[in-house]
Design goal:
Length: about 230
């Protein structure tokens, strides 16, 4: 880093034993957002630079990224960061700390992007990201995610590892008399507490991107995320 005031230069590097050093010495993107925050994209994740404390802070977005190789960073008018990686393009909402991952199934030319191969039009806000398979050009404000939460269908029940279908007996007792989706409640005995319920969202556009949470009232204190596992225990 070059200090224009005193003309001095300071070199920063990754220190494996220091939590507040650069994530990697392979710097692939440097971006200052509209709030003055300096983002450093590396081959091992994203960090911000704290000038007051002269240290780097690993960003929480790293846990949400499909790949930690950061190739480019841009900001839209809503102060969301658009981050290109080796496995897709990420829209990161800095305010909510939530991320949306876009890939080939969403219309990208490819999942891999070249580093320092991005630009934003100052007049229109249009963004361009380039990669080995071409470039993607879009208006970030015009990209809307589907706001409708798809319905959930219960697709299976297992007790003690045994799959239970309608009319099946488990230890001389019929568990399911009707389809799981048609019953209001499922009554299980104490000895039947080792059970598993499978479910699926009825959304077939990139179904592997569906994310799930479940909670067993009276047992779980909070919602449990299961991503694409689609089963609760």
């Amino acid at each position: 880093m070059f200090n224009r005031t005193n003309g001095k230069c300071k070199i920063y590097s990754h220190q494996p034993r220091e939590n507040n050093s650069l994530p990697s010495n392979d710097i692939r993107a440097i971006f200052q957002d509209s709030k003055g925050e300096l983002w450093i994209g590396t081959a091992n994740g994203l960090a911000t630079y704290n000038a007051e404390k002269d240290m780097f802070i690993t960003s929480g977005v790293n846990a949400l990224l499909p790949n930690k190789v950061i190739n480019g960073i841009l900001e839209d008018s809503g102060q969301n960061l658009w981050i290109s990686t080796n496995k897709g393009l990420v829209k990161y909402n800095v305010k909510t700390a939530k991320a949306r991952i876009y890939d080939i199934s969403d219309g990208l030319q490819g999942n891999d992007f070249n580093y320092t191969s991005q630009i934003k039009s100052p007049s229109t806000g249009q963004m361009i990201f380039g990669g080995p398979n071409g470039m993607i050009l879009f208006h970030p404000e015009k990209i809307d995610d589907n706001p409708v939460t798809p319905p959930i269908a219960l697709t299976g029940l297992k007790i003690a590892g045994k799959e239970i279908s309608i009319g099946d007996t488990f230890k001389n007792r019929v568990i399911l008399k009707n389809d799981l989706n048609e019953i209001e409640e499922l009554k299980l005995l104490n000895r039947e507490n080792n059970f598993e319920i499978e479910f699926a969202a009825l959304n077939f556009i990139s179904p592997f991107k569906n994310q799930y949470k479940y909670m067993l009232e009276g047992s779980d204190k909070d919602w449990i995320e299961v991503s694409s596992q689609k089963k609760s225990r």
